[in-house]
Amino acid sequence: MDFYNSQQLGGFSNWITTAEAKAHLRVDFDDDDTYIADLVTCALEACEKILGYRHGQYTHTGYSDTFDRVIHFRQHGLTARPTVQYKDDDGSYVTVDSTNYTDTRHSYPAKIVFADSFNLTNSKHDPEFLQVSWTSNITAVDPMVKQAGLMIIGHLYEMRQDVGYSRVFEVPMNSKYLLEKCRKQSFA
Predict the structure, then answer these.
(1) How far apart are CA 155 and CA 47, in angstroms?
(2) Strands 56-64, 70-72: parallel, antiparallel or unpaired by DSSP?
(3) CA 27 to chain centre
């Protein structure tokens, strides 16, 4: 899909709690709770950015201006058959009968494959001609991912400003090493 929106339905966006972060940091006072909660949010976002997926249950809606025989999804953990719609000449969305496509939601990357006999044409060059809706649900957090998140929180808590003044270079991070092992990549 060329572009898409996601909306969280439920699940857990905080797979590391403030209490777990405080225990990891060995902080036994409450003065920094708000700061640590913000670090948790930043660390979770950083982990999920590297991983290529978000934990929890989400609905996604993607749009494309072209009809391709195969549509690849950037998420894994699809929970149900995706719904495909296209805009007719009046600009209204029409649902494509599910017999016209198959989906491979249990593989990564998940994809929709349309039947050879099914074709659509975007005669009005509408950027939102094709609309695909799907849900994803990822509830299991790999222990390496959780540890990487805690390591990032520890780094951010101890290093409260950017490091380095004269020479700038990337510092190798163990957390990135742990996350790379669980990363979902797709070149589709």
Answers:
(1) 13
(2) unpaired
(3) 31
CA–CA distance, 154 with 134 (Å, rounded to integer):
36
> Comparing C-alpha atoms, which of 138, 142, 145, 71 is closest to residue 109?
71
Provide CB contacts within 8 A for 156, sequence distance 6+.
Answer: 39, 42, 43
In whole angstroms, what is the distance from residue 40 CA to residue 47 CA?
Answer: 10
Q: In this structure, what token pair is assigned to residue 118?
A: 């099914």
Query: For the segment 99-150, what is each residue's pLDDT rounded down to a tens digit?
Result: 999 998 777 778 899 999 999 999 889 999 999 998 888 888 999 999 999 9
Q: Tell me which residue of 52, 67, 101 sits closest to 81, measured CA to CA.
A: 101
The answer to whether residue 46 scores a pLDDT higher than 70 is yes
16-37 residue pLDDT tens: 999 999 999 999 999 999 999 9
Question: Which of 135, 4, 132 minimizes the C-alpha distance to 68?
Answer: 132
In contact, 55 and 139? CB cutoff 8 Å: yes
Q: Read off the DSSP letter of residue 78.
A: B
